[in-house]
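Researcher: We're teaching a course module on how sequence relates to structure. For the next exercise, students receive a sequence and then see the predicted structure as tokens, so they can try to spot secondary structure elements on their own. Here is the exercise chain.
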Amino acid sequence: MGKQIINRFKYFVLALAMCLGMNSCLEKEPADFIRTEEAMTSYSEAEQLLVGIYADWKSSALYSGLLTLLPDIQTDLVYAINGNTNTYVDIWQWDILPTNRYVESVYAALYGVIGDCNFFLDKLPSLRESISDDTQLAILVDFEGEVRVSRALAYSELIKLFCKAYDPATAANELGVVLVSHYDGSEPAVRASLKDSYEFVLSDLEQAEILLLEEDDLGYNSVYFTLSVAQSLHARVALYMQDWDDAIRYSTLVLNKKEKFELSNARTVYDAAGVSYFDYLWQYDSGFEVIWKVGFTATSFGGMLGSPFLHLTTDYAHYYPDFVPSTYALSLYDPSDLRYDSYFLDVTTGHSHGLTWPVLVKYFGNRNFINSANLFELQMPKPFRLAEQFLIRAEAYCRKGEYSKGAADLGTLRKARFAVGGTISMNADNWLNTISEERARELYMEGFRLNDLKRWGMGFERKPQSESLSEGSSLKISAGDPLFVWPIPKHELESPGSQIQPNESNK
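Model: And here is the predicted structure for the students to work with:
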């Protein structure tokens, strides 16, 4: 175990709240730090600021809430039903204005992460000059790598939501995001090109991959940004940039770490109660395939991912979901697909209409939190899993016409998820539909669907199902609809000195 990992166990239990500024989202104070020349002048303060950056990711506006749920709720995977508590209905109905509070929250939280990362990186050179302890200096190298992964991840999510899909032929002329690389606020609030925005992400990742050491990467269930996390994000970004070779290269780097990661098998029983390793992944937020998760405790956590789909805590006897799975999504699962029973449960809801329908129990809640603190519907988000790396490489192979290799990767994933069978074949005619359906099945309600449809140039159509809200149930969205790209929050466009250009969806 590397010195960096040993040292950092002692402070992980600390938690610092994210501090949101009162003006533009591009002007954030770092978590629990005063903006003075005296800040981050010691190794211990650098530790605390890094803890604050990890705490930023706990925000319910990010992976434990909006950032994960809204992109999938907006698509063809769920239906709002009668009895909905007016939760995310505007997103589901594609009534997304520049003043939408959910969009504002995601935008603010991501730039909050970036602000803290910039503060750390700006202060780091002078801190290094003041330290003579070789061990501390070595650990600061690791800290910098983690912070660069964090900043790259935040920017990649902003690009995914607030920019068009990447086309290498036009990216230099498309709007990207506002790139803020320093904390002092002197950089103009102007959107870079989409090409330059992604290049900024890649630059951070490439530096992080030099700074982070393989020997300090302990593998599965990490709550830290490790080398494997950097490589996994690099593979994802390369796929989005249509760089098929790098998507294959970086996903392969992760997939080849068989001593550190393996798929959580749905056929292999974990305990005497018959819980499979795949069930355990969701019931206890722990699995061999988890590359990075947001670390929660029963006293320090973010949002409740399961709440919109369950509302079990209304009376602890019935489910009162705001959203239920769409018929389309449910139909994707083969009878032998064990993911279905891990993700869904057929119930009669507690709503007055008594709808009987499968509800999403994937986010029923971490059983340790339920048993120790009666916290239902609370999950540790798992933004990077080995399954996604198989899906990335399979798609990249198919883009290069290597369909048999893509099918082999999907077959490996499906073998770990099916009771029997699971093999699949792909060719030039069916590969995209096959990949699309497999990503929907595996990554259900993990925040990928909106961007997948956008980058594939696909639309979708909803048709009413039992007890679905009338407005929104009959909805046809064409490929290229402006709202595949979220509007820039109005207050960002109107903040003093802002030169931020709006999206088409702002108009």
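Model: If you want an answer key for the exercise: Strands lie at 78-80, 175-178, 191-193, 290-292, 323-325, 344-348, 356-360, 384-385, 460-462, 475-477. The mean pLDDT is 92.
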